[in-house]
Design brief:
Shape: globular
CATH superfamily of the largest domain: Tetratricopeptide repeat domain
InterPro entries: AAA+_ATPase, AfsR-DnrI-RedD_regulator, BTAD, OmpR/PhoB-type_DNA-bd, P-loop_NTPase, Sig_transdc_resp-reg_C-effctor, TPR-like_helical_dom_sf, TPR_rpt
CATH class of the largest domain: Mainly Alpha
Family: Belongs to the AfsR/DnrI/RedD regulatory family.
GO molecular function: DNA binding
CATH topology of the largest domain: Serine Threonine Protein Phosphatase 5, Tetratricopeptide repeat
Keywords: DNA-binding, Transcription, Transcription regulation
Strand order of the largest sheet: 8-9-10-7-11
Protein name: DNA-binding SARP family transcriptional activator
Length: 936
């Protein structure tokens, strides 16, 4: 049986309409349907059925009405003092509408725009007319019809906002016309109508709509338009309504680009008109044929209103590339889904309403490209690859050939200068012929001439003749690139060649001088400058830590790798020699992030003064260095693992864990820990496997996958060395605590405290006392933990316990002490630059503000924290912030906002399986419903 109140009352059983006929019966049933499962007193029902003038026999008549309704509707029960209707709320369209609106908002907040719009459309489709249409009850209309109608209008506006984000303005113009006609004083609706008309190309109508809205507001209310409507007007006047940033990521066009008119004309003619099916083009040909240069040159000349994306694929996975593309499209840092299928869905949703050009450079195969293709109407993809990618559905391919002699000489003129080429035309033609028409070879040859003005073209042509055995191969496959790169390589000194070869052992596309020195075994800075001048490396400027960073074309690296194998042997020898420096630097940076690591055998005692000094100098420098080197170090874990350097691989993966955790770099965390685990297992290093399983469990825990976290820790326990067993049990206790299993968590923490104390592990004791203090709500344990962290010089540990103590003081109704602790902890994490711990501190501070009777301040702190948690995809933190935000809204008497916040919190706690959090949210939701009932 299904029930409808969003329109005339409807009771359906299958196709049968069982709607009661008498008006009072309908009013009584509606009152029960609007609050399913809730007892309603006889007095309340009499007031809602008859208003303020009930008959003298109302009690008896009500019983007759109930008896009549029971013949039609199952589930009407008599309870002390009244009645209730025992029915699933989702069978009542009003409650299903509210649930779908909440789901749509949650989906919108997760960044799934198209899916959120669909949810809201499904909710709005439930309406058949005005709420409670035909129900003769002023009480019910005031208490329920009015809020439902307001929620419907708000949902329409929210849905239209999503449609506008997706570029569907033309589709919603009619809907918005109807809305402003029915509600002419809703400024947001007028603004959305203007933006929809603008998107539909009807700019003059959009401007007219503004004038009409302004006239109505002035005539009816005596008010000028508000901020939102004025901003919409300004956007239309400016020539559009940009709701999002337009990315423009294609690299700069090369200054010496020459020829290629046939392929450029093919690309231009392939651009799809707006609203038509997307087009995917593949440029393929041998290495060095200029595929990337053609794609970039073409892209810079094409006009796509929603921007240009660029991705250099190399050997990167589709998941990693999707993460970069999603961020380019505006997905917040850390909010990218972990699951590949979810990333693909989010990517397709975010591009569905945009007309984009996407350049995918250097694709290895079809599988690497398929999930990155934009599916929106009017989009275009340019893919470069050595292969035609024949298996790529609906793609068209163009094979790039070498330059003819005239194009080759023209390109040489662009690089060297027309004056020099005109002076030696025969030598220029000889160079063009000897380079085999390959753009890369021509560019290298021309660059050498440009950097050596004393050389004649005849001199270079003679040098090329001397290398006839290599240059003859320029026209055959990969040997073309090899021969071209050999020109630059042979011009280097012995030390420069040695460095270039050894750098090829690293797969990373970018590196700092210290890494070059590590592979060389000596200072490399002067050699890097020489290689940059020779055009074989590129200087990319200073990174966040102040280091110069260098990169190179992947083809240059491949050629250098061949020379390394031929002249020195496999890259494993170079990596092995460099591994000590790489591991030492990373371990030192880790030690600053995580002082006195348990089980390390190193307890670094620092005074409070030393700790403060570290906060402002070495700690920040360490964090900046790790941020700058993240890509390099993650790639190096893979290099070590691929070369069989298993101990280096698993140790580097383990050292990176706290940094990747603090920065919420979960894709890199997952990749490195999985590679490290493989290496630890391959080499049979049980302790290394245990450490990496512990890291994997931490990753699962922060992602809310508590069952997987517990399983990883159970696998680690029998593998761990004695010093590590307590650390793993401590993690297991944290998982139990997150699962709401406090007795099991407490047992773990007690055992850990005993083990750490026996081993003299001060950091372990501090961690165990902190965890046990949280479970038992024991101030003495937390204070002892705090003192130990201070003795160890660990400001992060000190900050965390300070916030724990603040929460405990709040529970004990000691707000002034809670504020002192919270502000101290928050100050520490802000000086350290730790965003997520700062958000946790803001939630605590919001709780303090609530205890002090300052709900406005609490709301501000909770909203700021919620933004950070969402940015880092921290669902547990977001749930806590929403709960605090709901409490603040209640104190501010903003009941609807409180209900919305607590509903979203309940959704997060349910997904996380957090029963304690869900219970707190349900209690708060009950209070919110009670207050809404009182207000009515």
């Amino acid at each position: 049986m299904r029930f409808g109140v969003l329109g005339p009352l409807r009771v359906l059983e299958g196709e049968r309409d069982l709607t009661p006929g008498p008006a009072k019966h309908r009013a009584l049933l509606t009152a029960l349907l609007l609050r399913p499962g809730r007892p309603l007193t006889v007095d309340r029902l009499i007031a809602e059925v008859w208003g303020d003038r009930p008959p003298t026999s109302a009690d008896a008549v009500l019983r007759v009405y109930v008896s009549a309704l029971r013949k039609v509707v199952d589930g009407i029960r008599t309870v002390p003092g009244g009645y209730l209707l025992d029915v699933d709320p989702d069978l009542v369209d009003a409650h299903r509408f509210e649930r779908l609106v909440t789901a749509g908002r949650r989906t919108r907040d997760a960044g799934r725009t198209a899916e959120a719009a669909d949810d809201l459309r499904a909710a709005l489709a439930l309406w058949r007319g005005p709420a409670l249409d035909g129900i003769d009850s002023g009480e019910l209309r005031r208490a329920h019809a009015v809020p439902l109608e307001e929620l419907r209008l708000t949902a329409i506006e929210e849905c239209v906002a999503l449609d506008l984000t997706l570029g569907r303005g033309a589709e919603v113009v009619g809907e918005m016309r109807a809305l402003v006609t029915a509600h002419p004083l809703r400024e947001r609706a007028w603004g959305q109508l203007m933006l929809a008309l603008d998107q539909a190309g009807r700019r003059s109508e959009a401007l007219s709509a503004y004038q009409e809205a302004r006239r109505l507001l002035v005539d009816e209310l005596g008010l000028e338009p508000g901020t939102e409507l004025r901003e919409a007007h300004e956007r239309v006047l400016a020539g559009g309504s940009p709701a999002r940033a337009v990315p423009n990521e294609t690299p700069p066009d090369v200054a010496d680009f020459t020829g290629r008119e046939r392929v450029l004309d093919w690309i231009r003619r392939s651009v799809p008109p707006a609203g038509t099916a997307p087009v995917h083009l593949v440029l393929h040909g041998p290495a060095g044929s200029g595929k990337s240069a053609v794609a970039i040159h073409a892209a810079t000349a094409l006009d796509f209103p929603d921007g240009r994306l660029y991705a250099s694929l190399r050997a990167r996975t589709p998941g990693a590339m999707l993460e970069d593309l999603l961020r380019s499209l505006g997905c917040p840092e850390g909010a990218v889904p972990a699951d590949l299928a979810e990333r693909i869905r989010l990517y397709r949703s975010m591009v569905s309403g945009r007309r984009l050009l996407v350049v995918l450079d250097d694709a290895a195969d079809e599988a690497q490209v398929r999930s990155l293709l934009p599916t929106g109407p009017g989009c275009m993809t340019l893919v470069t690859s050595r292969s035609p990618l024949a298996g790529l559905e609906a793609a068209r391919a163009f094979e790039l050939d070498v330059f003819d002699p005239g194009e080759s000489v023209a390109m040489l003129s662009r690089v060297v200068g027309e004056r020099r080429v005109r002076a030696e035309p025969r030598a220029a033609m000889r160079i063009a012929v000897l380079c085999g028409g390959l753009p890369l070879a021509l560019r290298i040859a021309g660059s050498r001439l440009a950097r050596r003005p004393s050389w004649t073209l005849e001199h270079l042509a003679g040098r090329l003749e001397d290398e006839r055995g290599r240059l003859d191969e320029l026209s055959t496959g990969d040997l073309t690139v090899r021969s071209s790169l050999a020109l630059g390589y042979r011009a280097l000194s012995d030390r420069e060649r040695l460095l270039l070869r050894r750098l090829s052992a690293l797969s990373t596309p970018g590196f700092a001088p210290w890494a070059a020195s590590a592979v060389l075994g000596a200072p490399a800075d002067p050699l890097l400058e020489a290689l940059t001048e020779a055009g074989l490396l590129q200087a990319h400027g200073l990174d966040p830590s102040g280091q110069e960073r260098y990169g190179w074309h992947d083809l240059t690296r491949l050629y250098a790798a061949e020379r390394l194998t031929a002249e020195e042997g496999p890259p494993a020898r170079v990596l092995a020699a460099a591994s000590r420096e790489i591991l030492d630097r990373t371990r030192r940076a880790r030690a600053l992030l995580l002082p006195s690591e348990p089980g390390s055998g190193q307890t670094l005692a620092r005074t409070a003064e030393q700790a403060i000094a570290l906060e402002t100098t070495q700690l920040r420098e360490s964090a900046r260095w790790l941020a700058a080197e993240r890509g390099f170090l993650v790639a190096t874990v893979a290099d070590f693992q691929r070369s069989g350097l298993d101990e280096a691989a698993w140790r580097l993966a383990f050292y990176l864990t706290p940094f990747l955790d603090l920065g919420a770099h979960r894709e890199d965390w997952r990749q490195t820990v999985e590679l490290g685990l493989r290496s630890a297992r391959r080499t049979g290093h049980r302790h290394g496997e245990a450490l990496l399983l512990r890291s994997l469990a931490d990753l699962h825990r922060v992602e809310g996958r508590l069952t997987e976290a517990a399983e990883a820790l159970r696998l680690a326990l029998p593998l761990a060395e004695a010093s590590e067993v307590a650390r793993i049990r401590h993690r297991l206790g944290l998982v139990h605590l997150a699962q709401g299993r406090s007795p099991e968590a407490e047992a773990c923490f007690v055992a850990c405290l005993t083990a750490f104390s026996a081993a003299g592990d001060q950091r372990g004791r501090a961690d165990a006392m902190r965890a046990l203090g949280r479970v038992r709500r024991a101030e003495d344990l937390l204070v002892r933990s705090l003192e130990t962290y201070r003795e160890l010089g660990d400001p992060r540990g000190e900050a965390a316990v300070s916030l724990d103590l603040a929460g405990l003081h709040l529970d004990q109704r000691r707000p002034s002490e809670a504020r002192r602790r919270a502000e101290h902890g928050l100050g520490l994490v802000r000086r350290l630059g730790d965003r997520l711990p700062e958000a946790e501190g803001l939630v605590v501070l919001a709780g303090v503000a609530m205890a002090e009777g300052r709900p406005d301040a609490a709301r501000g702190a909770a909203e700021q924290a919620l933004g950070t948690f969402r940015e880092h995809a921290d669902r547990r933190g977001a749930a806590q912030a929403l709960l605090t935000l709901a409490a603040a809204f209640l104190d501010l008497d903003e009941i609807d906002k409180a209900v919305d916040a607590v509903t979203r919190a309940m959704g997060e706690f349910s997904v996380l399986g957090d029963r304690q959090g869900l219970a707190r949210a349900e209690d708060l939701a009950g209070e919110a419903r009670r207050r809404r009932g009182l207000r009515v």
